[in-house]
Amino acid sequence: MGEVQGQGYIGQALGWADVLAVAYGHALKLRPADPEWEGRDRFLLSHGHYAIAHYAALIEAGVIPESELDSYGSDDSRLPMSGMATYTPGMEMSGGSLGQGLVIGVGMALALRLKGNPAFVYNSMSDGELDEGSTWEAAMGAAHHGLGNLICLVDINNQQADGPSGKVMGFEPLHDKWAAFGWHVQRVDGNDLPAVLAAFDTARALTEAKPRVILCDTLMGKGVPFLEQREKNHFIRVDPPEWQQALAILDQNQPQGALA
Amino acid sequence: MSSTTAEKKPRLTTSAMIASIASEGQKVQAAPFGKALVEYAASHPEVVGLTADLAKYTDLHLFAQAYPERFFQMGMAEQLLMGAAGGMAKEGLVPFATTYAVFGTRRAYDFIHQVIAEENLNVKICCALPGLTTGYGPSHQATEDLAMMRGIPGLTIVDPCDALDIAQAVPQIAAHKGPVYMRLLRGQVPMVLDEIEGYRFELGKAKLLRDGGDVLVISSGILTMRALEVAQDLAADNVGVAVLHCPTIKPLDEAAILEAVRYKHRLVVVAENHSVIGGLGEAVASTLLRHRVQPAGFLLAGLPDAFLDAGALPTLHDRYGISRSVLGARIKAWLA
């Protein structure tokens, strides 16, 4: 997909791929042929620019066909650069106006509870969205309403448009902040598949009537050493020969059976 | 100094925010929105109510009392209010979200735009204190809410005149598929349109409430009530005033407006409880120009493009030209 455009949010996508793999390969209840199945777990991509990673997950899950990959970001494609519910099967919200996923998640979780539907609502968001006031409105609201069916996933790659997140707007201590807002908090290495998997299982198995957050420290460009080491740009440009090199490295280092 | 004070008009004071907009002795109905919603929701379990710490002041407390399990307090957090309402609509519910118009529109605009309208979600946003209906100053006066909301594609906008409009609008906006923004009158709400024989609120329709050969007033919201009063006053001076009530601001009933304007009155007045920027007045002007209809005279009787004063409502309505007496005087001055 990135090759079609020659650029994109490649660093974020690689950094978040492990979490998406656990979500779509292990945790989410889905019926790929019926993306609007009432019993599905809802997965909100609040950071719409991560769509490039989400599309890959939706393809792996069988929700959208691999043949559409080449249309990414092109005119009339169902796979726009920033994820939109109105374009793509399996995309639950139009993200990208950052700080909106969690407030929507609160509403969906309240509605599911009212309907007696046991599905979970997952909200996937970036650390930059911690700057948005609406994130904390939602954090308060979710705890106030005791939303045990809401799981928030925060990608802490420490990179925003204007530089390292900590320098743009310091957000630590994150564990304490979420805990003080009334959430069950876990913090894991978001690129350690077994750790992420265990965190998902813990979040889902809790019986406490409180919302759960998994804070995931990730490495931008994870899995492709020359991208991991590249100066951390929000929007990475990748030269044509590098795509093949990156794919070769990823294929070679594919984890074996981690999600089996 | 003190000897002359007894002859002066008493200085009016800013009344509490929850004060009724009804004039003394006017027929009123209490909480028409809350009552209509409770009635509709009885047979529509998909209806839920949300508010941002203003249930009591939007008459949603009646819904909360009737259906506590379907009422959701979102705290003083308007972005959460609109976002959560959107999330509920995604799950097939029909959320009614209430707050004051200033907070609902100005603070939560992106959430209405992106979460609710872009996905055409079935959220009904009902906002109290529209336009100049409080003397608390610009912090509470939603004088540009229609301008902001009109810019959002696919959003239906309703500006009801009185208790009857509101009671009849509630089931219609609930049944409408898609997002709606309704300006809300709450508390002791004037009852005016029951005097108009055969009148019924119909979503998307403008209604000619009375005919008259000299002036046509096109109006919405509480300015329709004013227009009817002015028409009565001017009839005594043998000036015929027609009143076309446009409670649906978007989509605008252009056919009814063009039809009414073609009667060739000497003057067309657009009267609205909103800034002259971006409200019904400019919508009507644009409609007429696009259809090459040129009235002999055209008067925008809305609120000025300014941050309005704090004070007593009767004083402010006089000051900004939307009281019965000043609106009537403005029209007569134009005709003279």
From TrEMBL, chain A:
It holds the Pfam family Transketolase_N. Its cofactor is thiamine diphosphate. Residues 6-234 form the Transketolase N-terminal domain. It comes from the Bacteria. Gene3D superfamilies: 3.40.50.970. Keywords: Thiamine pyrophosphate. Belongs to the transketolase family. This is Transketolase.
UniProtKB/TrEMBL annotation, chain B:
The keyword Isomerase does not apply. Keywords: Thiamine pyrophosphate. It comes from the Bacteria. Its cofactor is thiamine diphosphate. InterPro entries: PDH/Transketolase, THDP-binding, Transketo_C/PFOR_II, Transketolase-like_Pyr-bd, Transketolase_C. Belongs to the transketolase family. This is Transketolase. It comes from Pseudaquabacterium pictum. The lineage of its organism: Bacteria, Pseudomonadati, Pseudomonadota, Betaproteobacteria, Burkholderiales.
